[in-house]
Each structure stands twice: as structure tokens, then as C-alpha cells.
TrEMBL record:
InterPro entries noted in UniProt: Cytidylate_kin, Cytidylate_kinase_dom, P-loop_NTPase
MF terms (GO), sorted A to Z: ATP binding; CMP kinase activity; dCMP kinase activity
Subcellular location: Cytoplasm
One Pfam family here: Cytidylate_kin
Originating gene: cmk
Catalytic activity from the UniProt record: CMP + ATP = CDP + ADP; dCMP + ATP = dCDP + ADP
Protein name, per record: Cytidylate kinase
Amino acid sequence: AKPKVIAIDGTFASGKGTLAKRLAAHYGLSYLDTGKLYRATAKLVIDAKGDPDSAVDAEKAARALNEMDIDSFLSDPTLKSGGIGAAASKVAVHPVVRQALFQLQRDFAKQGAVLDGRDIGTVICPDADVKLYVDAKAEIRAARRHAELVGYGEDISFKTVLAQLKERDSRDMGRKDAPLKPAEDAHFLDSSDLSVEDAFDRACQIIEAVI
Ligand code: C5P
């Protein structure tokens, strides 16, 4: 059997994106990195000189995003920066923003897909065939993210990355609407001591045991 919808949630830099992409290729499913929707919303707010903490500014941006061609912004490499990520977690706090981005994600899942984010198993795809919750120790995630940012040419210390990551975790887990948490039926995957390959193998074992 083949899964139709795989929901992957987890902390920042846990490796869930890499895993999600590999699973999508392996099972012949489409892939949506839902963090990019929040990142693209944040970028629209910033480009319009708005404030990510303002629900009004953020909702306007999320609504504008719905009118845009999804492929045009999902492939924008500037969405990857640390600054946009932090702003994304601010716009993601507003319930109106989450509502504005809800249907788009639901529609995407209908064709059969792997989605990764923070609320996929809990809110977006509660009926997913398989739900994974990926996490790793904060120091390990920060080291991965630090290497990635340095690779993009950003001049940032490990200490700063670790502090930002902890701030991001607490904002994502502490918000009222759709906080990051494992769905009741999610399978845990701790990627702290796993290579990309091992995490993929482990995920496949979990999926094949479930479907
Ligand atoms: O995964 P990524 O770091 O790209 O996500 C950026 C931010 O977008 C997260 O910190 C989170 O606040 C928000 N997000 C969310 N729900 C999702 C995906 C991302 O709230 N499904």
C-alpha cells in the first residue's frame, strides 16, 4: 500500500523538511513546505514596510498571497533567511493569517502529498494516513542551522543561532492558535543521532507499519 497524505510536524531545524522531501520522492507524492507560506507572508509584510506583529498587516499579506501564483513565491530563495523565518513565526501567531492560509494547504493535500510544518497533523490534515513528529536536541539543531546559514554567506555566531532557535521554539509552542505540538496519533522521530539516510529509513519503517 502507498500512503496518500503524510503529515510531518516538528521543531525548527529538526530535519523535517529534508525528510519530507525524500518521503515525497520515495512515495511519488507532491510536497509542500508550509513554512514557506508563512515566510512568503512575512516577506510581503516587510516589503510593504508593515509590521509582522500587526494582525492587520499580516492578514492583508496572507490574502494577497492567495491571489498569487504559488510556484512563483515558493521558489524564492530569499525566503530562507533567518530574518524572514523569525518574522514568519510572528505573522503565524495571528489566527486571521492561519485562516487565510488554511484552504490552500487543504486543497494541496487533496491530490496526495507530504506536507511539513507545525500544525499539519493537528489542524491541516487531521486525517493524514501517517503523522510524524520530528525533533532533535536544541544544540544539534542549532549547529545544523548555523552551518546552513554560514553556507548562505550569513555572518552569525552559533550562540546567536541557538538563542534565536529557542525563542522560535517557545513562540511556536506557546501561541494560542495551532501551537506546535505532536498530534495524539503522531509517531515520534528523534533525529539527534540520526543521519539523513537513517532518519529516512526509520520514517519508512514507521509508515510501512501503519499503512
Ligand atoms: O518551517 P519554517 O522555519 O520555514 O517556518 C517558519 C515559521 O512559520 C515557523 O517558525 C512557524 O511559526 C510558522 N509555521 C506555522 N505553521 C506551519 C508552518 C510554519 O506556524 N504549518
